[in-house]
Amino acid sequence: MIYSPDRQRGAVTLIGALFIIITLALMVEVLQRMTASDVLDTAVQNDAVAALFIAETGIEHASYLFANGTPCVDLSLLNNISAGRGDFDITASAAVAGDCQISIRGEVPAFAVQRVVEATLHSDGNLLADANPDFNEPTSPCSAPGCFPTGWNLPAGGWDDDGGPTGNGDRAAYVEKPTNGSGTATTAGSFGLTPFTVTAPTVLTLNFDYKVVTTGNSPQEAQLSFNLSDGVSIYPASPAPFESGDTGSYTSDSVTFTIAGSGPVTVTELSFILFAKSGKPKKIWLDNLDLRGPGGGTGVRLRQWREVVSN
Fold first, then answer.
1. Strand 282-292 relative to strand 172-177: parallel, antiparallel, unpaired?
2. Which of 5, 39, 66, 311 is the most exposed place for a label (fewest CB within 10 A)?
3. Global pTM exceeds 0.70
């Protein structure tokens, strides 16, 4: 039986409609896959960023423990420490030439995303390690106006190239009152520190070596005053001032800085004053400044870090 062309036109239209429907369905499927892929890629990328932050948190955690007496080799015992949406492991630690080298893996478990970093920590205990605390840079001889102890703001004549405890070439801050009478003599010095941060409230201890030579009999012939500053507030040492009579030779002592309040405080400057009181002639030397946090801690610096693995 032969059908007329008019009856066949409906089949052609139906085929065309089916083709359009199938094409649209395929397009929707492709768009859904693309959208799902974008969402997954974004989630994985977010987890990768989070894993890096977690690994960096591991550096801070290791620094705190190392600063407060945990041996470098024992840091690698720390595993599965929760942080944010994941955790970190200190996978390796080794003491190398006075530094502590660590490897830390941060992970976000949702997509098992990991980031690994390596860091080198240096602990010298002394928060003034970069501040020429023994005044010996540059090496002797060093005379004003052409030369000053590196980093220190000192007056001309405010140091003695051979005045430190070991003598020749061991520099110390210095002041002299050469004559009898009512006059006084002062040397004041300051150093713009490599900033370091402590968490208030806390107490820092400054150890130092000093010598007073005088024929005066008072136990307060010489005064030493110390201050820390964060650029806004000044934190004076206690006792203020530190006083001493004749010592004849070098002796060691300490003062403390109480940083009140709460939260982080970034210390940017150390200053001191050597004051020779009126009366008999006298000389004062100051050397080997050593600033420590509670228990001798917080003297850890991050020398370098790098990411070694990412996915």
1. antiparallel
2. 5
3. no
